[in-house]
Amino acid sequence: MRSYRKVEKQVDYGILLSVFLLAIIGMLSYYVALAHDERATDILKLMVQQGIWYLLGGVIVFGIMQFKPKMIWKLTPIGYIAGLGVMTALLFFYDPFLADRTGSKNWFRIGSLTFQPAELMKIVYILMLAYIVTQHNSTNKKRTLKSDGFLILKLILITIPVGILLLLQDDFGTLLVFVAILGGVFIMSGISWKIIVPTIIAFVMLGAGVIYLVTTDAGREFLYGIGFKSYQFARIDSWIDPFHDATGNSYQQVQTLKAIGSGGMFGKGFNVSEIYVPVRESDMIFSVIAENFGFVGSCFVIFIYFMLIYRMIRVCFDTNNEFFSYIATGVIMMILFHVFENIGASIGLLPLTGIPLPFISQGGSAIISNMMGIGLVMLMRYQYKPGETMIDY
Questions:
Q1: 57-99 confidence digits (pLDDT tens)
Q2: Which pTM value belongs to this model?
Q3: Ranges 133-142, 167-176, 227-236, 263-272, most confident
């Protein structure tokens, strides 16, 4: 009985419940997407495969919770180097079929199994950011602009290799996720606001510049010159005016908007799909939820994400471990950006970038990556020792 009470106290059931609900919604939505897709020839097989990814993710969460924090600390630099090695290998051994279909060289293929290393690299990158910031802060008790500048340099140096590899893979959407993770850890790292405020202003100005470049002929000529592809501009055009080419490049976006709008307040009911949306099971899975369960159902899903983020933030406050607080920050930013970008793209607020909806969209690589992030946050409470504020490295 004592052992049970100890585990019950250390396991955050709020996080587990949120992930479980999202997984159930994901399975139901995946079924609806497949049931109304003429290309899906073996729905049962595909559903079982997706279920196996969820089960494997659950095992990974439990496994990560058994690690000692000190072991995670020691393995982080090794994992980062190994991750860069796998990402580099992808440049030579990517799946040509998926590269031609998606425009990105970001998939390995082993038989019928495909694997996206960038998804797992997100977790390794989060760990490395947390490692660098914690180590820097432990040796620089007195913060100065000079020491903050040195920390920023360290963060940039470990980000550049990842950014270059993602650009070589033509995976700009995933690169944005890494930028969001870096931004979250950067703000929470204790760097002076004398640096943070000008940096935020610079990024706002950069964003305005990017908007100018993608919306003007002269800007697009410049972007073409530095390697941007036609399909990337097609996504921008579909975002700015999706109905300008409703039967061509904007077809997916237009059909998604129609499906979401047709759901109304309460939706059409489960397993009703009157509007065809291409590749609905991955990037556009939110359209299934909105069409079946309407505005109310969509808000419920967003509420679950809110509760998940809230519970992860609570873990940070309850345990007060610097290394894992930065890890949790990275995981939160990763999930938050995925949710914001995926749903934002589905409703036309943001351009399409091919980013999946966490724990709901089809795809094993993304599910495993998100589950690893959840496992690290769960480990934070499960292995917590009262009074411990730093990793004993």
A1: 999 999 999 888 889 999 999 999 999 999 998 888 887 877 7
A2: 0.89
A3: 263-272
CB 293 within 8 A of CB 267: yes
pLDDT digits (tens, 9 = 90+) for 262-303: 999 999 999 888 888 888 888 889 999 999 999 999 999 999
CB 285 within 8 A of CB 367: no
| Biggest distance spanned by C-alpha atoms of the chain | 71
CA atoms lying within 13 Å on the CB side of residue 135: 15
Backbone angles phi, psi at 113, to 5 degrees: -95, 130
Give all strands (DSSP E) within the chain, no chain letters: 108-110, 113-115
Tokens 């964003």 identify what position?
207
> With contact defined as beta carbons under 8 Å apart, do 344 and 350 qualify?
yes
> Which three-class secondary structure state does DSSP give residue 275?
coil
CA distances from 166 to 155, 159, 267 (A): 17, 11, 39
Could you tell me which residues are beta bridge partners of residue 108? 115
Look up residue 156 and give its two tokens. 């940039």
* Coil, strand or helix at 140: coil
> Among 355, 281, 247, which Cα is nearest to 37's?
281
Rounded Cα distance between 88 and 194, Å, is: 37
Mean pLDDT of the chain: 87
- For 62-124, give the DSSP string: HHHHTS-HHHHHHHHHHHHHHHHHHHHHHHHH--HHHHHHHS----EEETTEEE-HHHHHHHH
Place of tokens 């005016």: 241
Query: The tokens 């802060």 sit on which residue?
Result: 137
What is the per-residue DSSP string for 206-235?
A: HHHHHHHHHHSHHHHHHHHHTT--HHHHHH
Place of tokens 């998940």: 308
Length of the chain: 393
